């Protein structure tokens, strides 16, 4: 049984080493990403009564990728290191949906609903 545990812990150590190497490679690729031209603008969105923040890159490519807002207040900024890599091959559109990050928010009074 001891040999099996030893083999198991070596396998886990190898997997952890491979995960760390993959993370380092990803970080180096993200840091090496060259600057790309990005178009950032607000688009009026009448359904929610505001405007939506949109970032586009790689506009000349036929295939598209849509990135929906990141987490918290960072929104589409969470994608800032990914967009240059994707835009080498795809038309990338990153959107902060209404009420998130840089998209404009409605008046809080418009979100109140009666409980009964």
How would you characterize this protein structure?
The structure is a single chain. With 116 residues, the protein is α+β, with helices and mostly antiparallel strands. The protein folds into two domains: 1-32; 37-105, no CATH class. Helix content is 29%, strand content 23%. The chain has a four-stranded mixed sheet. The chain is flat. The mean pLDDT is 77.
Rg, nearest Å? 21 Å
How far do the termini sit from each other?
Answer: 64 Å
The main pleated sheet reads as: 4 strands, mixed
Share in β-strands:
15-25%
What oligomeric state do the depicted chains represent?
Answer: single chain
Portion of residues within helices: 25-40%
Strand order of the biggest β-sheet: 1-2-4-3
Secondary-structure-derived class: alpha+beta
How many individual helices? Answer: 2
Question: Keywords for this structure?
Answer:
single chain; alpha+beta; flat; 116 residues; four-stranded mixed beta sheet
What's the short story on this structure?
By secondary structure, the chain is of the alpha+beta class. Helix content is 29%, strand content 23%.
Could you give the topology of this structure?
Elements: H1 2-31, E1 38-45, E2 50-57, E3 64-68, H2 83-86, E4 91-96
Parallel strand pairs: 3-4
Antiparallel strand pairs: 1-2, 2-4
């Amino acid at each position: 049984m001891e040999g099996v545990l030893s083999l198991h812990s070596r396998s886990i150590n190898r997997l952890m080493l491979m995960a760390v190497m993959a993370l380092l490679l990803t970080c180096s690729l993200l840091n090496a990403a060259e600057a790309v031209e990005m178009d950032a603008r607000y688009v009026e969105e009448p359904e929610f009564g505001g405007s939506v923040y949109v970032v586009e890159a790689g506009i000349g490519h036929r295939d598209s990728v849509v990135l929906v807002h990141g987490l918290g207040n960072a929104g589409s900024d969470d994608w800032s290191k990914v967009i240059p890599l994707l835009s080498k091959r795809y038309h990338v559109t990153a959107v902060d949906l209404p009420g998130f990050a840089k998209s404009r928010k409605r008046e809080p009074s418009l979100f109140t609903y009666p409980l009964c």
